[in-house]
Specification:
The complex is a heterotrimer of chains A (111), B (175) and C (512). By secondary structure, chain A is of the alpha+beta class. Chain A contains 3 helices and 6 strands, in the order H-E-E-H-E-E-H-E-E. Chain B has one domain: 3-Layer(aba) Sandwich (Rossmann fold). In chain B, 23% of the residues lie in helices and 13% in strands. In chain B, strands 2-1-3-4-5 form a 5-stranded parallel β-sheet, with helices on both faces. The longest helix of chain B is centred in the first third of the chain and has 13 residues. Chain B is globular. In chain C, a hairpin with a 2-residue loop joins strand 3 and strand 4. With 512 residues, chain C is of the alpha+beta class. The two termini of chain C are 35 Å apart. In chain C, helix 8 runs antiparallel to helix 9 and helix 9 packs antiparallel against helix 10. Classes of the chains: A alpha+beta (111), B alpha/beta (175), C alpha+beta (512). Chains in contact: A-B, A-C, B-C.
């Protein structure tokens, strides 16, 4: 078993500093989208909500509603939205209130 | 589809599964969770996940994450557990097992729902699945993702212990 | 070429059939004729799947046989009769599970009064009707092949909730104390009805579900699904996209074998070995994220190709170090006698059993049955030059570990070849591929892939751009069949987690 003791000692510590410090590796990991308020027109918003495979996007009245809880960060809505959409900077979304995960945006108007 | 945003308290507060929304009960619950601030013993329950969430959960005890350093531990028995970590879309065939596991845990206890599945994100309600687990057990903390990384899981577990802040950031215009 | 007693070969049979796509031959026969043909096919072909589907003239039974000699599939299609005159599994033991499924879903009895097990549906009154055919004869609510545990033996119930981060699975372990006499599996707790959900969905949404059939096999199952859709719709995949898919499949294979090593370390109590494997596993998942944007390579595949390219620079720079560390870990594990002793002779599945039960993948290859679709059933232009399936004896946990190590080596060689030889790979974001909005008449296709657990099959029928019928058969549906046999083979209680780790199947892939 000396083999394994030495191996473990040689390996050293690889543990992440999180939560004291951010984990740099996570910078590229998938995160739900965010959109620019007022820049997504209704017809595009409807197409995005149809394309979402996990029912996370919905057009409700004059707003586009995004449920971060249902989002799987697949990126299909971003492909459609292009400019006005981007990935959120990080994916630490735990919350005590379900409603905190539901965000909404004003729809843009046809110029 | 009923717009979920119009149902602001959709996730029941602790105890609200039985219809009580009692501010005093909530305060008491959080005070009692503060007793556990230093450590959490976690029992995992799979209600029908694809297995990716389980893989991330298993990695919590692996060297890169080592959640023991934060006072978090797995336990195989509900009797010693403070926390039920639940994955999956609530397959109805798991109702009995999930409820039994919850009821076997002594108070104070928390339920943490993991992934998009228990939030109705991937599978909707039908004869096989509930889509959500809140009809069976009250949920205290949700950790979204598909799957949520071990970092997100650590964040969610520390949140359940009131040892960390929520990190959802809203940019201008988001409501 | 394999010949049965009658001198009949698969090729001859296939010639009599029609073909809806290359490498797939369909033979339409009467129900009685099917019984005869199955008896002839049993010794010369590998049983791959059986299911029932709605057809113009009512319901049809489809049996799928694989030709592992020259590559290809032969499908027998016959009208659904209430039963075969004798239980199908008497002639074709591998089909027992499918017989049970047919009973649960369609109320079709196996014939000969053979008892059935609950495989995918829980035995509750809510689901007592045949699921796809409501209004049929009511199923017996407690359908379980009778087993009597007597004398000194008890059935120790384990599950469905088990250890930390383990999938829900019920294991009834029959024991007199230490030795395992028998094991009963109940795997229906996680049935999500994926095939049922896919009906009426767009191909994109159905593929999203196929990825999440089995998270640790997302690429493999999605690939089989995409290929089924592409065969149905006559879509040709760009060579660069196809190589990218194959690359993703190999990365998935690598991290799964390492995951199995981590679980073996945990099961044998070799903590540092487990920790080392977990470090490598995390390295692989991080590499997946760097190369394909997701730790488990979700959201990569689409019908017609891939949704994004691979970050080749990230992959190239990581390969050598990954290989060196993997080889070092395996060498140390195999040099640890206490570890090797726990694996040797545990959970043995012999070659005869592998053939009889239609096993696939590393579990079969460890028993000496070297079936591998990458050798025999190549569909793409991707080059598998020099590829050789791993093969070991005698089908115990140690043999499976060696197969895993050999497969990781071979996968790394393939990946290195594709990355460094200038093989065109998709290296930037692709526009949504063809077939996303395809509208057309009814079509069907069979798709397959050699996933990390073995052959995955998808049978898909589409109409108007939406799924009209889907049948998913991940590798786990084949290989769990052998798990209880493996446990019975002179094992003790503490071997159970070791055998489970070495099989490295998923419950999600079986339950769907």
């Amino acid at each position: 078993m000396a083999l394994w003791a030495l191996r473990g000692a040689r390996r050293g510590i690889v543990t992440t500093r999180f939560p004291r410090r951010p984990e740099p590796e996570a910078a590229g990991w998938p995160a739900p989208p965010r959109f620019r308020d007022g820049e997504i027109r209704r017809d595009l918003a409807l197409r995005m909500s149809v394309a979402c495979p996990s029912s996370a996007l919905e057009v409700v009245g004059p707003r586009l509603v995004l449920d971060l809880g249902r989002c799987t960060a697949c990126g299909r809505c971003l492909e459609l939205a292009q400019g006005p959409g981007s990935s959120r900077p990080e994916a630490l979304l735990a919350t005590r209130r379900r409603a905190n995960l539901v965000v909404s945006y004003r729809l843009g108007h046809v110029k | 589809m009923t717009p979920r945003v119009l149902d602001p308290g959709a996730l029941p507060l602790p105890g609200a599964a039985h219809g009580e929304i009692d501010a005093a009960a909530v305060r008491l619950k959080r005070r009692s969770m503060a007793v556990l601030r230093r450590s959490l013993h976690i029992r995992t329950v799979d209600t029908g996940s694809c297995g990716a969430c389980e893989s991330e959960i298993r990695l919590l005890s692996s060297p890169y994450y080592d959640f023991h350093r934060l006072g978090l531990f797995f336990t195989p028995t509900p009797r010693h557990a403070d926390c039920l970590l639940v994955t999956g879309p609530g397959c109805r065939a798991m109702d009995h097992a999930l409820l039994s596991a919850y009821e076997a845990m002594p108070a104070p206890k928390v339920v943490v729902a993991v992934g998009a599945c228990p939030l109705g994100g991937v599978f909707g309600a039908d004869r096989y699945t509930r889509g959500e687990i809140t009809d069976v057990v009250p949920v205290d903390v949700v950790v979204p993702g598909c799957p949520p990384s071990p970092l997100a899981l650590i964040h969610g577990l520390l949140l359940a212990l009131d040892r960390i802040e929520e990190r959802i950031t809203l940019q201008e215009g988001e409501q | 070429m394999n010949e049965g007693e009658s001198g009949l070969t698969l090729a001859q049979l296939a010639r009599n059939g029609t073909s809806s796509q290359p490498m797939v031959a369909n033979l339409r026969v009467s129900a009685a004729g099917a019984g005869d043909l199955v008896a002839k096919l049993a010794p010369i072909a590998r049983f791959a799947d059986m299911f029932v589907r709605p057809a113009e003239q009512g319901l049809e039974r489809v049996l799928v046989f694989a030709d592992d000699q020259s590559g290809g599939y032969l499908r027998l299609i016959c009208p659904l009769d209430k039963s075969f005159p004798v239980p199908l599994s008497r002639v074709l033991p591998a089909a027992y599970q499918e017989e049970c499924e047919l009973y649960e879903l369609w109320g079709v009895e196996p014939g000969g009064g053979k008892p059935v097990n609950r495989v995918i549906l829980p035995p509750s009154t809510e689901t007592a009707e045949p699921l796809r055919l409501p209004g049929g004869d009511r199923l017996s609510s407690e359908v379980r092949a009778p087993h009597v545990v007597q004398g000194e033996a008890i059935e120790f119930p384990w599950g469905p909730i088990r250890g930390a981060g383990q999938e829900s699975l019920y294991l009834g372990l029959v024991t007199t104390g230490e030795e395992l006499l028998d094991a009963y599996l109940a795997m229906f707790h996680k049935h999500r009805g994926l095939e049922h959900r896919m009906v009426g969905q767009t191909l994109a949404r159905a593929l999203f579900l196929a990825e999440r059939c089995e998270g640790l096999g997302a690429v493999g199952n999605a690939l089989a699904f995409a290929r089924a859709a592409e065969a149905a719709l006559g879509i040709a995949v760009e060579p660069a996209a196809e190589v990218t898919r194959c690359l993703a499949l190999e990365l998935e294979r690598i991290y799964n074998h390492i995951g199995s090593l981590a679980a073996l370390g945990a099961a044998t109590g070799l903590s540092v070995g487990q920790a080392e494997a977990e470090i490598l596993l995390e390295d692989c998942l991080r590499l997946n994220a760097r190369v394909f944007g997701h730790r488990y390579i979700f959201n990569l595949l689409e019908v017609g190709g891939v949704r994004r390219g691979a970050d080749l620079a990230a992959l190239d720079s990581a390969l050598d170090r990954l290989e060196a560390r993997f080889e070092s870990l395996v060498a140390d594990l195999l040099a640890t006698n206490s570890y090797v002793d726990r694996l040797e002779g545990a959970g043995t599945i012999a070659a005869e059993a592998a053939h009889r039960l239609g096993l696939v993948g590393p579990v079969a290859r460890a028993a000496g049955v070297a079936t591998d679709l990458r050798r025999t059933h190549q569909v793409s232009s991707t080059s598998y030059v020099g590829f050789r399936p791993a093969r070991e004896q005698p089908g115990d946990c140690l043999a499976r570990m060696r197969v895993g190590a050999a497969e990781v080596r071979e996968s790394l060689r393939l990946v290195r070849h594709w990355v460094r030889s200038g093989t065109p790979l998709q290296d930037d974001w692709a526009a949504p591929g063809p077939g996303q909005d395809h509208v057309g008449g009814p079509a069907e296709g069979l798709g397959w892939a050699e996933t990390c657990r073995g052959e995955a099959l998808v049978h898909l029928e589409v109409a108007g751009g939406r799924v009209s019928f889907a049948r998913l058969r991940p590798a786990a549906t084949r290989n769990w069949r052998a798990f209880d046999d493996a446990l019975r083979a002179r094992n003790v209680f503490t071997d159970v987690p070791i055998v489970e780790a070495s099989f490295w199947l998923t419950v999600a892939g079986f339950a769907r």
